[in-house]
Every structure is written in C-alpha cells, then in structure tokens.
Write a structure and sequence with these properties.
By secondary structure, the chain is mainly alpha-helical. Helix content is 75%, strand content 0%. It has one domain: MetI-like fold (Orthogonal Bundle), CATH 1.10.3720.10. Helix 2 packs across helix 4 and helix 9 runs parallel beside helix 10. The protein starts with a helix and ends with a helix.
Length: 291
C-alpha cells in the first residue's frame, strides 16, 4: 500500500510539474548529464587522464569528437568523467548540508527560546563569512581532496537550509493538528519527524535543487583556481588546464564551461518548477477551477 501511495504522489507531482515547459526542459538537461556521468566508463573513448591519446591540440575527428588538449588527452572523455566527479561531489555535499541544516533548523524552530537564539547566532556566523574566502582557507589548510571539497561545500551550504527549515517549523508548529498530536501524548520526536517535517518537505526539496546548483559552482571555482584534486578530472579542473591554451583549442574551455552553465541552469529551472508545483496555494486554485 505504501508503494502505491508513493506512486500516486509521484504521479500527482508530475501532473503539476509537467505543464511548466521550462522546468521540463531543465529536467531533460539534468537527466542527460546524470546519464553521461553514470555511464562515463562506457561512453568514454579513452581514460580521462591518458596523455598522448592523440597529437596535442588535435581538431575534431571520429577518434576525438571534441579534439585533444595540450597533453594529447581526449576532451570528450574528460568531459564525461568530469560530469561524474562534479555531480557526485556536489551531490554528496548537498546531502551533508541538508542533514545538518535540517537538524539545526528543526531544533531551533521547534523548541524556540534560548535554543533558537543560540543556533541562529551560530548560523549567522557562517552566513556573514564570504563563501569563497572560507572555501579557499579550508582547502589551503586541509588540502583539496574530493572529500575535503565535499566538506567545505557542506559547511557553506547548511545555514541557508537551516534558516528555511526553521521558518517552516515556526509556522507549522502553531497549527491546531500539532496541538492535537501533543494532547494525544505524542513526544517531541514524533511531532518533529511525523507531523511537522512531512509538511515542510516541499521547501526542503526545492532548496536542495538550488543548493546543488550552488555546490557545482563552488566546486568548479575551487578546481579552476587550482585548489581541487588534480588526480580527479572535473569540469573546473578542465577549465583550469585550459587557461593558457584557449587560442590553440578553444573547446578545452568551451565544453566544460558550457556543461557547467547548462547543469546549473537546469537545476535552477527544475527548482523553480518544483516550487510552483509544490505551492499549496497554486494547487488549491487549480483544484477550484471548473473542469
């Protein structure tokens, strides 16, 4: 029964989301990059870091669809594996930031008082620090490994989630059905996870898509500036390597740059589409229209 209920909810969400053409367009682009990331090892012609797969700065050909870079590496293969690295790192960072932000926001919004004040002051400390400055300091001290980049992106992203969740909890906890749950003997954990959080999840879902876009930009910026992991091909690292060779092969910069632009655009379009589809006021108006 739960599986059928989930499928009905998913179908209902798709019915509200699908009329948004820009949202669907963004979803198609996003799925395209997710698929090439998943099947990079199948689609790639050469290993991504293999030097001498062809002559340096080779043009477009069947053997090298996007040409080669200064070391003879295949740009097409680098782009495929770069999608995997960029999407995986940003996704893991978003998962971590969502868990931390949910925890801080839920506790602050539900309990209020001095707990709310203390947690929000901690949140504001992270919000006022320039993001890129904190990221550069972090990776300079701890190194630019993939896990460190995940950590710094999560560190920069959780405050926004915490503030959004807190705002939702402050509103929802005052509803009459929450009072009824407490009166019936429900404990704090039950009220938080079974009563309030399911009704705040739409805000979380929308923010996750937007945070993913921001995470991709941060990861790409760190790699572009030379603070990423040089042993892992990402779109930002490709841009870093292309700085000196734009005149020799402009595709070295254009392909990863276009991929970052399209992925971030797609995530923003999907986020806006989800925000509209999950808007309860829009759904109430749609339900009231004559059929």
């Amino acid at each position: 029964m739960k599986d059928w209920h989930f499928l009905r909810q998913a179908h209902s969400l798709w019915e509200r989301f699908s009329p948004n053409r820009l949202g669907v367009f963004g979803l198609v682009i996003l799925l395209f990059y997710v698929l090439i990331a998943l099947f990079a090892n199948v689609l790639a012609i050469y290993p991504p870091l293999m030097t001498g797969s062809g002559p340096s700065f080779a043009g477009l050909s069947a053997a090298h669809p996007f040409g080669t870079d200064n070391l003879g590496r295949d740009i097409f293969s680098e782009t495929l594996y770069g999608a995997r690295a960029t999407l995986v790192v940003s996704f893991l960072a978003v998962v971590a930031s969502t868990v931390v932000g949910l925890g801080f926001g839920a506790i602050a919004g539900y309990f209020g008082g001095w707990v709310d004040e203390a947690l929000m002051r901690i949140t504001e400390v992270f919000l006022v620090i320039p993001a890129i400055f904190l990221a550069l300091v972090f990776v300079s001290i701890f190194g630019g490994s993939a896990w460190n980049v995940v950590g710094v992106i999560a560190l920069l992203s959780w405050p926004q989630m915490a503030r959004l969740v807190r705002a939702e909890f402050l509103v929802i906890k005052e509803q009459t059905y929450i009072d009824a749950a407490r009166t019936s003997g429900a404990g704090n954990l039950h009220v938080i996870f079974r009563e309030i959080l399911p009704n705040a999840i739409s805000t979380v879902i929308v923010n996750v898509s937007l945070t993913q876009a921001s995470a991709i930009l941060i990861e790409s910026s760190l790699s572009f500036l030379g603070f990423g992991d040089p042993a892992v091909v990402s779109w930002g690292l490709m841009l870093h390597n292309a700085q000196k060779y734009f005149n020799q092969n402009w595709l070295m910069a254009f392909i990863p740059g276009l991929s970052i632009f399209l992925t971030v655009l797609a995530l923003n379009l999907v986020g806006e589409g989800l925000a509209e589809a999950l808007n309860p006021r829009r759904n109430v108006r749609a339900a009231s229209l004559p059929r």
